[in-house]
Amino acid sequence: MSVNTLNITATLPVMERFYTIQGEGFHQGKAAYFIRLGGCDVGCHWCDVKDSWDADKHPQLSIDNVVDEAANYPGRIAVVTGGEPLLHQLDALTKALHKKGFNTHIETSGSSPLSGSWDWITLSPKKFKAPLPEVCKAASELKVVIFNKSDFAWAEKHAAMVGKSCKLYLAPEWSKSAEMTPLIIDYIKDNPQWQLSLQIHKYINVP
After folding, report:
1. What 3-state DSSP class applies to 170?
2. pTM (2 decimals)?
3. Is the pLDDT of residue 7 over 50?
4. Contact residues for 109 (Cβ-Cβ < 8 A; gap 6+)
5. Is residue 1 over pLDDT 90?
6. Cα angle: 15, vertex 16, 18; to 5 degrees
7. Which of 132, 192, 135, 194 is nearest to 159 (CA)?
8. What is the rounded CA–CA span in Å between residue 76 and residue 95?
9. Taking the CA of residue 56 as centre, how many other CA atoms within 13 Å lie in the half-sphere pointing to its CB?
10. Running DSSP on this structure, what letter comes out for residue 90?
């Protein structure tokens, strides 16, 4: 896998891009244009987009092309995701998106240094590679995927690392949602600083 982590580039490896609604977190239900970048060094075993892991499998597209395509749609939230998008230098992408009037959102494990100018940062830490303190402090929302009961303590560990204004979400891992969701509901009732985040895009069958 080859990814550019050093230089500002005019192209990025884009796995897919699509217009839909945000299915999770604080901005759930809002129209958004998703830009999924190739490349990931975290490798979660329950990842539902494992095809994104190898950046070399995906075409290098010009930032101008990607942003112009996004601007064809009326929504003005652009969500950059992956893979792990922070493996790439994203200053040029967010600058171009802002020029077109977009609010820039990123979904990241936080395991690589921040680049780009972001209006919203969703931190979803993974056990395989710890998030960097700078990303934790900058996070707008913390989303922890609950795969088993021990993940609640792991969620609290990361809640202690983010800022006071960061919103806290617990999300059931999709394949175990029937088992984990009731546990999350009980946990939130006892710990109301947390909120429930469901992948509603999967329930309503949109990307």
Report:
1. strand
2. 0.91
3. no
4. 42, 84, 123, 124, 125, 126, 129, 131
5. no
6. 165
7. 194
8. 14
9. 2
10. -
